Amino acid sequence: MTTGKIPPGPKGSPISGCARELGDDRIGFLCELQRTYGDIVRFRVWDRTLYLVSDPELIKEVFVTNHKNFTKSRSLKLARHVFGDGLLTNEGESHKRQRRMMQPAFHMKRIHGYGETMIQYAQRHADFWETENLDGKSVDISHEMMRLTMAIVAKTLFDSDVESEAEAIGEALTSVVGLFERTFHPAAVLLTLMPTRKNFRFLRSRARIDKTIYRMIAERRASGKDHGDLLSMLLNAQDEADGSGMTDKQIHDEAITLFLAGHETTANALTWTWYALSQNPEVEARFHEELDEVLGGELPTPDDLPKLEFTRRVFAESMRMYPPAYIIGRMAIEEFQLGEYTLPARSVVLLSPYVCQHNPALFEDPECFDPDRWAAEKQRERHKFSYFPFGGGPRTCIGESFAWMEGILLLATIGQRWRMQFPEGRKVAFDPQITLRPKDGLPMMLTRRSPAQVAQAIA
Ligand code: HEM
To answer: Does ligand 1 come within 6 angstroms of the Cβ of 258?
Structure first.
């Protein structure tokens, strides 16, 4: 029971609460809650009471100041079926230890080396569109970005090409998304254990992935060779506290977590960026101008990153308008104070980058795609937790630097050669599951930017 004042919010239906509203238009409903009731809103979905928190200072409280009082919420607990005890779903001391061991591998200096792989794979993809004669043709850009980021994460993680495993991984991913659909259902856990076709398919694809990863671990342990990839890093990691390493099970869980967390989100961020560019021709022209000026028709290198400032702003603005992780959940361990309210133990708190980043009180004219919001002086004026596409505090995304580098380098490599146009008159809709995907993909027409055009622009 909540003691004292109760935050405002809608009543919903007596049985399912706001399940229908959340199911019909999740994003619209959450934004509406904030607009109607303010920065702390209480609502019920089936048996769960949820609190949507949208004040940056209170978000900081949950992520940073009072983080010890929160665990991950039910959706991520369900995801344990896939991620095991990997970083994303792990908790407490075990999480702290794993994070400590893995952090060095994600420092900017270490991941710089992966930049070359990112550029090489993006170039290969841009070539593929050319050899397939896709100039003037429509492709599902969401599918294309998923394939590209999956190939990059497979190379940087396992030093391998994943074509043969792609199908199983795709199936496993779809199954995880399926689990998330049930998150708010009162029998969510039971549904996951039922002998349904969906669950069998999931178990089959997971078994295939498990086999592949354990085989790779065994081969690496036997050969002792350092491949310079993330898997070698996991195998070599030692806890500074006691010098111990990771077990095969831990390595497996971390590998699968990095694989899935490391490509779906970035693919969505890139998909939305291409869409945003297609809708904002002036921004797109400035983007091309920067690419032509900085790269002069040559491939980028990781050292070009600081010079691709406008591209960085475009990517940042895209993640403001279309944050791939549009909602982040936490569950309170003990009763706690949030602003003027005392919320009970087991309260589920929802922090939504989408809601905050579209709030006109935090971002002027939020529906306008304006990369110049990310000029350093403007950025400094804003509260750190008005923009949090990568979360915050000790559970902040470990792959953030990796994602920025990948986003900017892929945009530069592909954007130099190709434009994407969204069919006029067609509407885009959200499919907000674990990440913010476009509903039914995102068909876009590819148009080749010819070398002559680029040369002319440079001149
Ligand atoms: C645009 C791309 C990305 C976005 C928007 C994103 C977003 C996020 C967010 C919001 C969280 C925090 C979740 C929470 O607090 O519950 C998170 C955690 C995490 N992300 Fe990312 N991510 C991205 C890319 C990546 C990449 C490239 C990797 C790995 C190569 C990665 C690996 C992880 C892991 C392992 C965690 C769990 C960290 C922990 O709890 O200690 N992510 N990500």
So the answer is: yes
Tens-digit pLDDT profile for residues 274-296 = 999 999 999 999 999 999 999 99
The candidate with the shortest Cα–Cα distance to 214, out of 153, 166, 158, is 158
Joined tokens for residue 381: 């004026």
Nearest CA, atom 19, ligand 1: 397
In a domain, 9, yes or no: no
Domain that holds residue 327: 19-458
Give the number of domains in the chain: 1
Distance CA 435, CA 323 (A): 8
Q: Ligand 1 centre from 390 Cα, in Å?
A: 6
First to last CA, the chain: 69
Atom of ligand 1 nearest to the CA of 258: 29
Q: Measured from the CA of 402, which atom of ligand 1 is nearest?
A: 27
- Tell me, yes or no, whether 250 lies in a domain: yes
Residue 71: inside a domain, yes or no? Answer: yes
Question: In this predicted model, what pLDDT tens digit does every residue of 183-203 receive, in sequence order?
Answer: 555 555 566 666 777 778 777
Atom of ligand 1 nearest to the CA of 254: 35
Domain of 238, CATH number, reads 1.10.630.10
* Residues contacting 325, CB < 8 A, separation 6+: 265, 353, 389, 390, 391, 435, 436
How far away, in angstroms, is 319 Cα from ligand 1 center? 13
In the chain, % helix, strand, coil (3-state, to 5) comes to 55, 10, 30
Q: How far is the CA of 324 from the centre of ligand 1 (A)?
A: 10
Distance 260 CA to ligand 1 centre (A): 10
